Amino acid sequence: MVQIVISRDGADGLAEWVLMELQGEIEARCSTGLAGNLLGDLHYTREGVPVLIVGHHILYGKVVHLEKPFAVLTKRGARDHGSPGAAAQYLVTALIKTKLLFKTRPKPIITSVPKKV
Fold first, then answer.
1. Which Pfam families match (predicted)?
2. Cα separations in angstroms, 64 against 20, 27, 103
3. For the segment 16-55, what is each residue's pLDDT rounded down to a tens digit?
4. Which comes out higher in pLDDT, residue 65 or 12?
5. Residues 54, 39: contact at Cβ < 8 Å?
6. Which domains does the chain have, with CATH numbers?
7. Gap between the Cα atoms of 103 and 18, Å rounded
8. Which residues contact 6 (CB under 8 A, 6 or more apart)?
9. Contact between 40 and 61 (Cβ < 8 Å)
10. Are strands 62-76 and 89-102 parallel, antiparallel or unpaired?
């Protein structure tokens, strides 16, 4: 039987993250992928509606509170403890209680329309 130890630092040191759910597929311009790159700008309206601007597109979303929160875990292996016989431990570093849901198609942002001559 494998025993997994999960601990947490304290309520004060625990961060709260937000999950973003996008419908469709996002492709990076370069072949290295999206990791470490800027996806877009996230803003909120006065009513609390999340607005995501990606390139020349705008997406409107909504805030959804999760029924069952997620825990973000960090693994502390045997190497971290210095003894080869020590079992791996997991530390709760953050909780995810809400998500931003963007399920509509992106709308193009048009700044100026040229007039016909």
1. Ctf8
2. 10, 25, 12
3. 888 888 888 777 777 777 777 778 899 999 999 999 998 8
4. 65
5. yes
6. 5-108 (2.60.40)
7. 16
8. 71, 73, 89, 90, 91, 92
9. no
10. antiparallel
